[in-house]
Amino acid sequence: MEPCKFQRMIAHATLADVPLLNKLVNSAYRGDSSRKGWTTEADLLDGTRTDENAIKEFLTEPGSTILKYLEGEKIIGCVRLLKHGHQLYLGMFAVDPNLQNKGIGKKILIAAEEEAQKQNCQSIDMTVISERAELIDWYKGKGYVEVGEKKPMDFDNPSGGIPKRDLYFITLEKNLD
Questions:
Q1: How far apart are CA 153 and CA 21, in angstroms?
Q2: 78-83: long-range contacts (C-beta < 8 A, 24 or more apart)?
Q3: Are 126 and 147 in contact (CB under 8 A)?
Q4: How far is 150 from 37, CA to CA, in rounded Å?
Q5: Residues in contact with 49: Cβ distance below 8 Å, sequence separation at least 6, in sequence order
Q6: What is the pLDDT of residues 118-140, one digit of tens each?
Q7: Backbone angles phi and psi of 2, in degrees to 5
Q8: Per DSSP, what are the bridge partners of residue 73?
Q9: pLDDT in tens, 77-119
């Protein structure tokens, strides 16, 4: 394994990071670039995963935080966290598709769980597309469990993607107690 040339760290994203976050998230989930990694949704949805306006809204929404994983000055991973009650919702989790399967996602997930504990949250929840069996299994390996909740994939904004077939989300949760 080649040694890392740059220091890696996790920090809170700012509005200045929006263009790079947008590029990262879309490259990890949609289009040909996403096929380099294992998180692609390109066969399930058309269009983009997000846009700059949505990311700006996430950064300014009360209770919302985006963590970015930096390699030097380059953002190579991110996750959005939204506090609701005593839970922290985890979404927009992305790692550069060229760098997947190198432990970056695990480090981001650990940072998200640490952030949840700092915010006195008792659990983390998330929604995952039901057909993403490999991703669901990855989360289960990190202690997340299905809570039996299914939600239709209804998009009121096509910037989140256009389903190619009927899809639904399942909810996963991890207690932090």
A1: 23
A2: 78/13, 78/21, 78/24, 78/25, 78/108, 79/108, 79/109, 79/111, 79/112, 81/112, 81/115, 81/116, 82/58, 83/119, 83/121
A3: no
A4: 26
A5: 25, 26, 28, 29, 30, 41, 160, 161
A6: 999 999 999 999 999 999 999 99
A7: -75, 135
A8: none
A9: 999 999 999 999 999 999 999 999 999 999 999 999 999 999 9
Q: Would you state the structure tokens that stand for residue 145, as one six-digit string? A: 């469990």
Long-range contacts of 70-75 (CB under 8 A, 24+ apart): 70/8, 70/9, 70/10, 70/11, 71/4, 71/6, 71/7, 71/8, 72/5, 72/6, 72/7, 74/6, 74/20, 75/13, 75/17, 75/20, 75/21, 75/24
Residue 133 phi, psi dihedral angles, 5° rounding: -55, -40
For 73, residues 6+ apart whose C-beta sits below 8 A from its C-beta are none
